[in-house]
Amino acid sequence: MKVVQRVPVKIRFDSVPEVGLPLGPGESVVPTVKVQDFEYSGFQLMIAAALTGAAVLGVLWWGTRPPKAKKSA
Questions:
Q1: What does the pLDDT look like over 3-39, one tens digit per residue?
Q2: Which of 17, 29, 44, 46 is a Cys-bridge partner for 40, taking CB atoms 3.0 to 4.6 Å apart?
Q3: What is the pTM of this model?
Q4: Sign of the alpha-carbon dihedral angle for 30, 16, 25, 10
């Protein structure tokens, strides 16, 4: 089975092309790929862990609350 993957690309020109110049398949290019490397500080990781822990505790607390008693009119 063949999986077709489409990746969005940004095309940048070294110089501004002529307005009426058609672009088509088979044009000669030199592709370059830039991949961003994410680096997080220890403080950022600590904050993310604290927020994740607080969210988990909040969900657990919300799920274990006793049901509210209905008020009779």
A1: 777 777 777 777 877 788 777 776 677 777 777 777 8
A2: 44
A3: 0.41
A4: positive
